[in-house]
Design a protein that fits this description.
By secondary structure, the protein is an alpha+beta fold. It contains eight helices and eight strands. The chain has an eight-stranded antiparallel β-sheet, covered by helices on one side.
Length: 213
């Protein structure tokens, strides 16, 4: 059983901006501390046998310079690998390229702070329509998967059970609370409140299947 309120509260979310050679980019950062040593968290995030236990099946070469592909999702190139402190890769999906970086550091004996940064070119119109939740909710779901992975001693999260949970009242509440949290982060980053709330409502409807307002 997932503690929805506890998991939502355990995650830090930030929105920022960055100027890249190709122009303005949005920066989404999500972080959580896990009761596992740094080396174990790094292995969970880079070992192709463990990644499907909490995220998605992955194929390809996960070493520096290699190409990877997540089943039904993004693929890309591993651009940096610094075991056990983190890695960086392109995130290629739907004909668009963005970038992810995972940073790990010790947060006390046997504990690790996991921080993921996702940098993407998002035009103002699309940002106004969906805001950070379009990507952020997906990363929240990944982090709850990783939390469950460590909570059950590294054994796999059953895909069928995960799908059932997503469609359950608790799963829908998790998505809704995640969306609200990203809306708050967007407002704190300077997005006008009404715009952020409208985008949050729209992306919640997208993920939950509720009628779009």
């Amino acid at each position: 059983m997932i503690d929805v309120t506890g998991q939502i509260s355990a995650v830090e979310r930030r929105i920022g901006d960055r100027t890249l050679p190709a122009g303005h980019a949005r920066v989404l950062t999500i972080a959580q501390t896990y009761d596992a040593p740094v080396a174990d968290v790094f292995d969970a995030c880079t070992n192709p046998e463990r990644i499907p236990r909490w995220f998605l099946p992955v194929s390809g070469d996960l070493s520096f310079g290699g190409r990877y592909q997540l089943e039904g999702n993004a693929g890309g190139t591993v651009e940096r690998c610094d075991p056990p402190h983190g890695f960086a890769a392109t995130w290629e999906f739907g004909g668009e390229v963005s970038w992810i970086e995972v940073r790990l550091r010790e947060a006390g004996p046997g504990r690790t702070r996991f921080e993921l940064e996702h940098v993407a070119h998002v035009d103002d119109q699309r940002w106004a329509e969906y805001g950070p939740g379009a990507v952020g909710i997906g990363w929240d779901l990944a982090l709850v998967g990783l939390a469950s992975h460590f909570a059950i001693d590294g054994t796999g999260v059953d895909p069928a059970a995960a799908a059932d949970w997503m469609a359950s009242p608790e799963g829908l509440r998790f998505v809704t609370e995640s969306s609200r949290s990203w809306t708050t982060a967007s407002i704190e980053a300077g997005t006008p409140t009404e715009q952020a709330q409208t985008a949050g409502t729209r992306v919640t409807a997208f993920y939950t299947g509720a009628p779009t307002p």
